[in-house]
Model the fold of this input.
Amino acid sequence: MHVRSPQYGASFLIDQVCPEDVVCPEDMSDDERLLMRSIKEFAEQEVVPRYDEIDRRNIDVIRPLFKKAAELGLFMAEVPEALGGLGLSVLAIAGMSECRSYLGGLASTVFAHQGIGTLPLINFGTPDQIDRYLPRCMDGDLMAAFALTEPGSGSDAMNITTSAVLNAAGTHYVVNGAKQWITNAGWADLFILFAKIDGTAFSAFLLERQTPGLTIGDHEKLLGLQGSSVCALQLDDVAIPVNNLLGEVGKGHKVALCTLNLGRMKMAANCAGTSKKILAATTQYAMERRQFGRPIAEFGLIQRKLADMAARAYGAESVAYRTAGLVYTAAEAEGAEGGGSLDRKLETLAEFSTECAMAKVIGSETYHGLADDALQVYGGNGYSEEYPAARWYRDSRITRIYEGTSEICRLSIAKTILTRAERGRLALRDAVAGLTPPAREPAGSDLVTLRAGVDRLKHLFLFVIGEVWEQVEPPQLLAPTHQQYLGSLADIAIEIYLAESTVLRVSKLTAARPTSDLRLESALATLVFYKAADRVRQESTEVLCALLDAHRRPDALDRMTAWLPAPVGLLETRALIARELVARHGVV
Done:
């Protein structure tokens, strides 16, 4: 795999990105594909036949499957080789995350342990802590959980009230408080627990299940993911040894944010993989379900729905792997320069936190949208638990909430972009100052035209943010009263990232396979681009109309329209996608 140019956070908004600068699923090596295949085979042979028992939280079924996942190497994947793990690349981890959907209700248990449960120990554990816990986490003897959320602090995670006080002997921290919505809590042996030392120093600890004073509540009755264990914790004078402090006193935010940024990137890949699975099954159902004497896949509105589903799934996958590639490439560059320290790793994840948040929003909203559309295609059968659409619909909903709600992610995206601009780390103001009026260009759907169209969307973003800066001072813009502006700016940036990721993926694929039939891929990129342009039009119009008076508004809207393409030929594009989907049984 070769990626040409180093990139930095949110730079895609002002830089010219080339196809060779992005990572795509097609860049995966044979070894990485072998890992994905092994997970799918494990799921088909061991997990799928036990879906119902897993959904009933039968621990006598779940724990042996958890152990088999360990034997497969899933819990060693992200552990460095120096610590006895496999040390797989971020790209391989993205591929592994894409396969998560095949594990059904077991997926939440496995990946909560493998990711947010174990990564803090890998990244921040002392040699003694790693020796005591990591080997048993890797071999599945210990199950881990991440205990951050509290009844009064969900999105406002740094505002936890769980307290830790060093005892008089200096041997233990005495912890009091409560946690809520903790995945794996009912079965976990080890908790990554967050508390404030002396009420102020946000810190992380390793807490063993059998510690006196820890009470674990009943399993929550969940809308979806019914095979997972989600419980509350109560901590009453829980004594945690001082050598179980994870990381430094007052630096627990590093533990939390490092874990969550990487988690968002992996969730994007998971949501993309699940979306592709939903697309394939729904296409197959539409081919088999007959009404009025013919398969419903032959009806125009079903074809339209399938085509839109395919474009969204393909776009989400493009974004997930591009984002993984940004982190992967930066990590590889650091390794080549002799870096690789924990601080450098944290800096890399922080650098691309905007893209990770974008990928999470795109992936989770794509997954939920496809689940909803799939249920519609299934019709009355979709509302029955005898068919898979009901499960998809239930399971999809939480992805827009956990690991950062869509609203929190949007605010983070906009605030990070604006903060980078103010600190001189993103030359947005220079780009706005150098913006020239657009020349009208004919609409088209070939890849060159689409890439030019993406650049025009970027120019429109600069125009809109320039108008925002004209009317609202930057410090005021970050205030809660202006969150609607921030949300619109984030949505415009998200749609640009989605469109560019998809168009560049197909451009790269076309260059690599000049003799291949890539009509489907080109059509998918076309549909993704024009749907993104529609959303950009909507958000830009709302912002400009809110900001500008009646005198300036018409000129600004005319200027906006000049940058936006007309959606030419989309009916034919959708029809082509639908035909190709049927021919390929829903596989894109």
